[in-house]
Design brief:
Layout: H1 3-31, H2 39-53, H3 63-86, H4 112-123, H5 139-169, H6 179-204, E1 215-218, E2 224-227, H7 232-241, H8 262-286, H9 290-317, H10 320-324, H11 348-362, H12 376-387, H13 398-418, E3 423-424, E4 427-428, H14 431-457, H15 480-495, H16 510-538, H17 556-595
Helix pairs in contact: 1-8, 1-9, 1-11, 2-6, 3-4, 3-5, 3-16, 4-16, 5-6, 5-7, 5-13, 5-16, 6-7, 6-8, 7-8, 8-9, 8-11, 9-11, 9-12, 9-17, 11-12, 12-15, 12-17, 13-17, 14-15, 14-16, 15-16, 15-17
């Protein structure tokens, strides 16, 4: 690993650590209903929203009412966005005339199955895109659809996390908060200020913001080239802050209009992880034990650091087949070295590797390079981040929820080992909580593996509805182990509500649009609903006093136990599939150099 790569990683981790406490403390004050510095400006707006919508902020909801509100909120958002996508040709701010008979050549029609996939994708905070944004969506669809969904889906995730935190603090009650109040405060006090500041910073560094139509320019060779335009800076910021990750352009953050410089690359990574990291401190502050929050942050940071080091080393080592052919790929004054395939020269190996881990660890899914072109072991790390269940920072809100699921599993295992009733923060962990956690794990793990297997097992007729132009497996540009990795990654990305992809897979077909959409719903709501059920159970329990026999759930020992549980659960579930994909590809690649 080169010194510049190591320095970049240390600077990034230091900046992330520096913003975690102040942002986390601010969010804790917001959700405890205390006044914060923007309250003078935002409190009247908050009150007006409650009056217009008929919401009484003093009314608490049970977990079933909270879950019902969450589902209703998602359903309405899906229906509105689906209608917008299907009708964008009749709506304003569409200078390129997408969705009409006069759409430009090369544009992608918004078919019913693609609209379903897209609406589910952004409603579930996944941002899986089976289409090039600059050739499919109007400016109105980008702003009133994609950008709005980024706010609403992220706010719902934060609300669920806050409700679960309250369950560890309260006792002998049914109320876990008010969903509508939590969503409003998440949007007004957290997402809007961060995205506004982020948009200003990105815009100042060259990210475009315009309503002009696509421009046609003459190239040096004398040909004509269309340059896509649009309101990018405003959408880029919220896509990162919300862990949504949907790119305005098909190239996502590899496009110079979205991510023009190494400085914006660093800012975008910080925006991705800011809220998920801050939520750990929010957790510690709200449960009145900051050590608990720092322990969760430490475990996330260790997993993140391990992934960054592994991917950077793998990419800087380069392709063994090229080395065996005598091609010098070592870093030097005249070349960056390593595996530069699919990477932008303005970011290099280090900036691309760090961004890829931040994107897959945070469930953001933004990319500044082609994950399909990474080395097999790098792809293994990316897929581990996805299949570990959003515990490495994860999405806004949902990342903390997933980590608390793993904490429940860890204290349950520890309780079995020492022969004591498992407890966490004074609340006994019993059969109901474990059933909900296992329901989530089994449903999400099975969805990844079963749908990935079905992709290869089911054969549809050519030129049918399910395969409009070719056989299903012909959507793969690669065969063998890497082809399996492409499909496995797509299914893991959908269930993890991540949205990134191995770009060698053409997923815009009815099979992938519908099945991946279903997996996104599973990955979102079979995490959120069990989490709220656990909150409903815990909030009714009395807090147990801490004694000398109580196992501490903070510090290095518990952190190591939690870390081991994450690795063990992920490996036991997905190791066979990963062995046939990236692990097999790694050994085949190195075996090829040995044979030669």
């Amino acid at each position: 690993m080169t010194w510049p790569s190591l320095a970049q990683f240390i600077v990034f981790l230091g900046l992330l650590l520096a913003i975690t406490k102040p942002l986390g403390a601010y969010m804790a004050n917001v959700f405890k209903g205390e006044r914060t510095f923007p309250s003078r400006l935002l409190a009247p707006i908050e009150g007006a929203i409650y009056r217009i919508c008929g919401i009484d902020p003093a009314v608490e909801q049970s977990w079933t009412a909270y879950a019902g509100a969450t589902l209703l909120f998602g359903l309405v958002n899906f229906a509105l966005f689906y209608a917008l996508l299907r009708l964008q040709g009749h709506l304003p701010l569409n200078p390129n005339r997408f969705g009409t008979a006069h759409a430009p050549a090369g544009s992608v029609p918004m078919t019913p199955d693609l609209a379903f996939n897209t609406a589910v994708s952004f409603m579930t905070n996944t941002s899986w895109q089976s289409y090039p944004g600059e050739l499919t969506l109007s400016y109105f669809a980008q702003m009133a659809g994609v950008a709005v969904q980024s706010f609403t889906s992220a706010a719902a995730g934060i609300a669920v996390a806050v409700a679960m935190i309250r369950a560890f603090v309260r006792e002998r009650t049914d109320g876990i908060g008010n969903f509508w109040v939590d969503v409003t405060r998440s949007t007004l006090y957290v997402l809007l200020p961060l995205s506004f500041a982020g948009a200003l910073i990105l815009g100042s560094q060259g990210v475009i913001q315009t309503f002009a139509a696509n421009r046609t320019v003459t190239t040096l060779e004398g040909g004509a080239q269309a340059i896509p335009m649009g309101p990018v800076a405003s959408q880029e910021s919220i896509k990162l802050v919300s862990s949504d990750g949907g790119g305005y352009f098909n190239a996502n953050s590899a496009h110079p209009f979205e991510n023009p410089t190494p400085l914006t690359n660093l800012i975008e990574m910080l925006l991705m992880l800011a809220v998920p990291a801050g939520m750990t401190y929010t957790f510690g502050r709200m449960v009145n034990d900051r050590r608990q929050g720092w322990t969760l942050f430490a475990v996330m940071a260790v997993l993140f650091a391990g992934g960054c080091l592994a991917v950077t080393l793998s990419e800087q080592s380069g392709n063994p087949i090229l080395r065996a052919a005598g091609i010098d790929a070592k870093p030097g004054r005249g070349q960056p070295g390593g595996n530069m395939e699919g990477k932008e020269t303005r970011f290099g190996v280090a900036g691309s590797a760090l961004f890829s881990v931040a994107a897959t660890a945070s469930s953001d899914g933004a990319v500044n390079s082609s994950h399909d072109s990474f080395m097999p072991l790098s792809g293994l790390v990316q897929m581990f981040n996805l299949t570990s269940g959003e515990v490495i920072f994860g999405g806004v809100g949902t990342g903390l929820v997933s980590m608390l699921f793993m904490v429940v599993v860890t204290v349950f295992i520890a309780g079995l080992l020492v022969g004591r009733s498992p407890e966490y923060l004074g609340k006994k962990i019993e059969a109901r909580e474990m059933k909900m956690v296992m329901l989530s794990y089994v449903a999400t793990g099975a969805a990844i593996l079963l749908f990935a297997g079905a992709t290869f097992a089911i054969t549809f007729p050519r030129a049918s509805y399910w395969n409009p132009s070719s056989g299903l497996t012909e959507h793969l540009t690669n065969r063998g182990a890497h082809g399996l990795s492409e499909v496995l990654y797509a299914n893991a990305s959908a269930v993890a509500t991540n949205g990134s992809a191995f770009a060698g897979l053409n997923a815009n077909s009815p099979w992938f649009n519908l099945t991946l959409g279903l997996e996104m719903l599973i990955g979102r709501f079979l995490v959120i609903i069990p989490a709220l059920a656990i909150a409903g159970s815990l909030v009714q329990k009395k807090r147990v006093a801490v004694t000398f026999g109580t196992m501490p759930t903070y510090g290095p020992l518990f952190a190591a136990l939690l870390l081991g549980s994450i690795v063990l659960v992920t490996a036991l579930t997905f190791f066979p599939a990963l062995s046939l994909g990236p692990i097999a590809e790694h050994f085949l690649m190195n075996l090829g150099t040995t044979v030669r």
